[in-house]
Amino acid sequence: GENVEQHPSTLSVQEGDSAVIKCTYSDSASNYFPWYKQELGKGPQLIIDIRSNVGEKKDQRIAVTLNKTAKHFSLHITETQPEDSAVYFCAASRPQGGSEKLVFGKGTKLTVNP
Amino acid sequence: GAVVSQHPSRVICKSGTSVKIECRSLDFQATTMFWYRQFPKQSLMLMATSNEGSKATYEQGVEKDKFLINHASLTLSTLTVTSAHPEDSSFYICSARGLGRVSYNEQFFGPGTRLTVL
Question: Which residues of B touch A93 (CB under 8 A)?
């Protein structure tokens, strides 16, 4: 089955710097790659996603890149702010005839220092 | 985005009792709902997938007789933890995927339910 590795497990940056979180996946059939932000005591919130027919997607300060050949995808946050501090999870899923399930990475705790 | 609610947000119960958690999609029809469990500082672990009107599909190692899932309508799924024990204490999160306003394959998560079993 699918296996998603996520690095780093913790990341500390200064406000205004960029943050990059990387994930690799094992199943070449996976075609959907979302990123979630989870604040303490809350459910995950979808912040951006990318599908396998696209190499890059951007939404304001957040961007995701996908390298299908290498089977890895990355989250880029520019101009980080203290409110970006949270745990970020990457995930991957493959077509399964309506039963698509997400396989999550172990998460990255991002701390943005003022 | 699509909104998913959960109730209750927190519950404390005695060992041996049963607890029901509700998950609702508020502004879209959820053809599929997922239930996850998350232990402190860990990732989300999928427990089961439920499609409206059919039996849930449980992941390996999840006891279906202990975690009863009902997806009776396109906007409501329930998870009942039966005969709860302290080791069932966890953060339970549902997600929903459906048609209409949401794109196929996207899952939208509820706020989670913190279960504490004494």
Answer: 105
Tokens for A114?
């003022």
* Distances in whole angstroms, Cα of residue A93 to Cα of each of A72, B2, B71: 13, 20, 22
CA of A41 vs chain B CAs: smallest distance (Å): 8
Cα–Cα dist A59/A98, whole Å: 28
Residue A37 with chain B: CB contacts under 8 Å: none
Quote the minimal CA–CA distance from A88 to chain B in Å.
10
With a cut of 90, say whether residue B48 has pLDDT above it: yes
- Measured at the CA of B41, the angle between CA B38 and CA B47, to 5 degrees, comes to 15
At B39, list the tokens: 């232990």
How far does Cα B51 stand from its chain's mean position?
12
My answer on whether omega of the bond before A44 falls inside 30° of 0, hence cis, is no
B43: nearest CB among A32, A101, A107: A107
- Strands A45-51 and A32-38, sheet pairing: antiparallel
Residue A98 distance to chain B (closest CA, Å): 8
Q: What is the pLDDT of residues B91-108, one digit of tens each?
A: 999 999 876 544 567 889
B102 φ, ψ (degrees, to nearest 5): -100, 145
Read off the DSSP letter of residue A5.
E
